[in-house]
Specification:
about 260 residues, alpha+beta, 7-stranded mixed β-sheet, 5-stranded antiparallel β-sheet, 6 helices, globular, binds biotin
């Protein structure tokens, strides 16, 4: 294990232990299997994942040389703030994109990063029990499209995806530069989440959240419904107006009008 971040890493714990693989099944799974023995802040990254996991049981493909797959271990972790971690991860990625390219990415609630109305990055947060008592560890896994071309996405059947290469007009960072920047942004945000709660960053999150004010389709009480997204609460839930009633949506797929083919 080594300090892959070199001198650009400004964190206290995140990425101070960092292992990189050419190929692994899933970086989230790697940490999940070893959460007890690994140190807080441990990072694993890979060029290729054979069983990359996405949200809601989807798969996530990371092909060699084109993307960043990275997972971080945060422990101990207060499980009551787990619902906010994907949103905090999204803020960190949003800031990293801006810092490295000057591009203002949007966030599709809860944690897709969107550039040019297409998906640049997905985040999968998971938790594991990290002791024999009620002690938990959180795993924050980030998959970013870095160098893919339009044709690669078309061939893979994911036309709603984009990459930093496609969006940044020559200012495309390397996967390592991007990873270091995300870690530098994420650590202070997680510290703030733990100390002051998510309400302390709702304003910043809402500024970039492309879902707000839009018509959305979602599953509520096992039914497909339409509504309007109107806000984010202190637990990271999406507040929606559904037929005149205000509901807090905690999880599940939310399609946003104007994005990823919802017209
Ligand atoms: C999504 O469905 O949008 C979330 C995708 C998350 C993918 C990342 S890649 C690194 C980490 N390891 C995994 O197996 N999944 C996450």
């Amino acid at each position: 294990m080594s300090n892959i971040g070199d001198n650009k890493l400004r964190t206290r714990a995140l990425g101070r232990e960092w292992v990189h693989f050419d190929s692994v099944d899933s970086t989230n799974e790697y940490i999940k299997q070893r959460a007890l023995e690994l140190e807080n802040g441990f990072v694993v990254s890979a060029d290729f994942q054979s069983k990359g996991r996405g949200r809601r049981g989807n798969s996530w493909s990371t092909s060699a040389g084109n993307g960043l797959a990275m997972s971080m271990l945060i422990k101990p972790y207060d499980i009551s703030t787990l619902s906010c971690l994907p949103l905090v991860g999204a803020l960190a990625v949003q800031r990293a994109v801006y810092g490295l390219t000057g591009l203002e990415a949007a966030i599709k609630w809860p944690n897709d990063i969107v550039l040019g109305n297409k998906k640049l990055c997905g985040i999968l947060c998971e938790s594991v029990q990290s002791g024999d008592r009620e002690l938990y560890a959180a795993i924050c896994g980030i998959g970013v499209n870095i160098g893919q071309t339009e044709n690669e996405f078309i061939d893979a059947g994911i036309e709603h995806a984009t990459s930093l290469y496609l969006q940044s007009e020559g200012k495309c960072p390397t996967a390592k530069e991007f990873a270091v920047s995300v870690l530098n942004e994420l650590e202070p945000l997680v510290d703030r989440l733990i100390k002051d709660g998510f309400s302390s960053m709702i304003e910043e999150y809402a500024r970039y959240c492309i879902t707000l004010g839009k018509q959305v389709k979602l599953i509520y009480s096992e039914e497909k419904v339409q509504g309007t997204a109107i806000g984010i609460d202190a637990k990271g839930a999406l507040l929606c107006n559904i037929g005149g009633k205000f509901k807090a949506i905690n999880s599940g797929e939310v399609s946003v009008r104007g994005l990823y083919g919802y017209v």
